[in-house]
Amino acid sequence: MKKNLLSNKFYWILLLLVVIAVNWLAEQVPVRLDLTAEGRYTLSSPTRKLLNEIEEPVQIDILLSGELPAGFKKLAASTDDLLREFKAVGKSNIRFQFIKPGEGLNDTAKAILYDSLSRLGLNPTNIKAQTKEGEGQEERLVFPGAVVQHKGRTTAIDLLQGVSAAGGLESLNTAEALLEFKFAYAIKQLNQDTVPLIGYLVGNGQPLTYQVQDLIENVLRKNYAFRILPIDSVGLIPPVFDALIITKPTTAFSDEQKIKLDQYVMQGGKLLWMIDKLYAEMDSLQRTQNEFIAFDRALELDDLLFRYGVRINQDLLQDLNADKMPSVIGSVGGKPQIQLLPWFYSPLLSNYSGHPIAKNLDYVLTQFPNTLDTVEAKGIQKTILLASSQQARTLETPAKVSWNSVEKEEDFNTFNKSKIPVAVLLEGKFTSHYANRLSTEQRAFITAQGQTINTQSPESKMIVIADGDIALNAVTQNEGPLPMGMNPYTKFQFANRDFIQNSIEYLVDESGILETRAKDFSLRLLDQKKLEESKTNWQLINIVVPILLMIAFGWAFHYFRKLRYQHK
């Protein structure tokens, strides 16, 4: 029967119908296998849930088309793979295309387009790209990002934001690991019709100057409903606030104010603390004779934080892995010679716990940070988010701050402490600091606000950072407010904005999208030593084996053909 079927001149029609049927079945019941150990091509449950809930089309324009260097080509290919997975789940509601910005436009229109992309937060990178073969290279601007449109709203994704620019292959690998989070987060932001309400607490010296311009305008107002909340303007903090931010207070908190914070936590409120326990400022160093003594601000928050499970220490952290500041190294002809040198009071912090808030982030810049310790607090889970490098030290109070804190070669040996914590996440059911301690007047005050006195919170979270400057931005005379985490001298931007935004998002978002930041993309590099040792063998295999296979195939074909016709 098989012989009769193949000998029929119309057998190809049946074969064509079978192929069409198999393709139709594959489209109706898609089967996708991810054979990578880390699940590189498997979407997380929160992402799949988000894509399944989309009711209107999402248009994604990826600005990585045309001739690109190998690194950008690899990033574009990974983006294409991811968005195909998005489309497999979201089906017709996910539409994407790769475009080359400005292609076919005149110079004026191109300049307008580039300006629009910059306003969206996509910063160009100048590269040299191959034109046509034999025509050399051309310089062009590349915007390593994407523009996402949904429900009449538009946002931009910078594929390299928060990733170190000096990490080479590791940086590109990190950028690929963050692709799912960045695209899913952008779609979630555009798809939601209501946003969490975030309060910026004032009343204890918290800054409301240009130093918080980036925090307020580019993080809080951009992504959330936002209100400035004077703590003394309310009887109790209303639970309508999904989270409160406490940024670098400089004056003491009264018992009445601490009761307000404590009862807010007991109602399930989330807090982001950014605290400078000691007074240590660059202005003080510049005004004095190159040194000063850092002293306690006496904020009166120790007892409250201790109850919640953390203690901010009365010390300053120094780290050999630090940002650079201009320093005078001598003089020539009566003119000072200035050079950028590491400023050990500005440690660059990293994440070692693998928590999605800070995983795959570039360094986070700090200024005169303190250290912290976790303490016993029943039912509270603690996760260190940021810590020093393995070459750090602490200066105990009274700490003398000076330009020349390291004078001799032997001083470097004192940087022998490792991974000293500066930021911690606390999760669980918090116990009230005022449990069984409220006076009759304090109880009457709380109940008069129409609120029940709680001694334990529901499941909640808070983040404590022992540095008040982590969310502040520098302000220069010529450029005004700079982005958060940017060094005003080198113009390098660290990942402070991403860290603060991720922290707030983790506190208020229940979708779980942030968990996708914890993805690992293993970079499997060849062993260079083994490669060099077996280089000749592999060259022979790659050259000789294909030739031998072709010869063997030709001989076998000729041999069996000869046997077939001899038999006939």
UniProtKB/TrEMBL annotation:
Transmembrane intervals: 538-560
Occurrences of domain DUF7088 (ranges): 38-149
Superkingdom assignment: Bacteria
InterPro entries linked to this entry: ABC_transp_unknown, DUF7088, Motility-assoc_ABC-rel_GldG
Residue stretches making up the ABC-type uncharacterised transport system domain: 198-503
Keywords, in A-Z order: Membrane, Transmembrane, Transmembrane helix
Pfam annotation, one family: ABC_transp_aux
Protein name according to UniProt: Gliding motility-associated ABC transporter substrate-binding protein GldG
Native source organism of the sequence: Flavihumibacter fluminis
Gene: gldG
